[in-house]
Specification:
Number of strands: 2
Distance between the termini: 31 Å
Number of domains: 1
Structural class: mainly alpha
Shape: globular
Number of helices: 12
Strand content: under 5%
Mean pLDDT: 95
Radius of gyration: 20 Å
Low-confidence stretches: 1-8
Order of helices and strands: HHHHHHHHHEEHHH
Largest sheet: 2 strands, antiparallel
Helix content: 55-70%
Length: 328
């Protein structure tokens, strides 16, 4: 492991996980089925962000979702029902994590990457306050666009415009797609993330998200409305790939709620002195600090293929700085 010196660590980070950061074994050569199985299993069981969001999606579908027959025609009542549920979920997940880590300080700075306080009295942010800014853009724009996409896809399924998975015959396909959605979202995220780092789009759109050089749970979905439209457009793949209401709900909740969890600012939840649940990734924390690296996720090594991967080590950081000097 290539760790920074104590002085370097104090200067840049409060906490650094085991390095180097590693991508999934899905595209490793030679292909190792056992490593791939272990990676999938550990990404879901016994307790994971993926599993928690899937459970929330199931609860949303069974108890808080309008019947598909109601979605045949766009109407205010069933769309409002989805919006209120999505807003409540965002407050439960992002708000709950914020209260736990930043208000009640249940974990102090243990496993927190950047110990700087979230900004207050800073004119960079709406209302001069980072948390209020993040909450506003997340709820006013993010939850609205999330709901609009969900309503669109439910309308498409109800009218037969989008292909439907039929239960129980297509159950295995549903299960497979549930496992594949995080991988598809990683690939899609890399593509659109490179797009919105194009200078004209960055200056007018993506800059709003990147005001958060230090991040918290509300930062994840704090974006410009146009970025929300691009970002959540991932779900439009189901105009081609069959889905059902549960899969649509899971697809969108995975993209929205995991934005909150991965931007927690902490590696994860520590209870009783034991690490219980992985949350924020150091990989993406590095992107928020240095901007021009780690555009994607760890499921697909797009950054490695493109030469923009930063694995957290000092050697990788020197290479990153050299690339940035060459590009400038």
């Amino acid at each position: 492991m290539n760790e920074p010196t104590a002085g370097q660590k104090r200067k840049q980070w409060n906490y650094i996980p085991a390095l180097p950061i590693r991508t999934s074994p899905l595209f490793s050569q030679p292909f190792n089925p056992r490593a791939v199985f272990k990676w999938f299993f550990r990404g879901w069981f016994p307790l994971s962000e993926n599993l928690a969001i899937l459970l929330l999606s199931g609860l949303s579908w069974f108890f808080f979702h309008p019947a598909l027959a109601r979605c045949h025609v766009f109407q205010f009542d069933w769309i409002a029902q989805i919006f209120i549920r999505n807003l409540a979920l965002m407050f439960i997940v992002a708000g709950g994590l914020h209260l736990y880590f930043y208000v009640y300080r249940k974990q102090d700075d243990e496993r927190r990457y950047d110990a700087r306080p979230l900004a207050r009295g800073n004119r960079v942010f709406t209302f001069n306050n980072q948390v209020l800014d993040n909450m506003f853009w997340t709820c006013a724009s993010g939850v609205t666009v999330w709901t609009a996409y969900e309503a669109l896809m439910m309308w498409a399924l109800a009218n037969g415009y989008a292909p439907m998975l039929e239960m129980p015959g297509d159950f295995l396909w549903l299960l497979l797609l549930i496992f594949l959605i995080p991988i598809w979202e990683t690939f899609y995220f890399y593509l659109i993330h490179r797009l919105i780092h194009w200078p004209p789009l960055y200056r007018h759109v993506h800059y709003l998200h990147h005001r958060n050089t230090n991040i918290g749970p509300w930062s994840g979905l704090s974006m410009h409305p146009l970025e929300h439209i691009i970002y959540l457009g991932s779900v439009l793949i189901h105009w081609l790939v069959p889905a059902n209401p549960l899969l649509i709900i899971y697809h969108l909740q995975h993209y929205t709620l995991s934005a909150a969890t991965t931007h927690t600012g902490y590696e994860g939840l520590v209870v009783g002195g034991r690490f219980r649940l992985a949350l924020g990734t150091f990989h993406h924390q590095i992107h928020h600090r240095f901007f021009e690296c780690n555009y994607g996720g760890l499921e697909i090594p797009c950054d490695k293929w493109a030469g923009s991967f930063h694995d957290g080590t000092q050697e990788s950081h020197r290479q990153f700085l050299a690339r940035r000097r060459t590009a400038s």
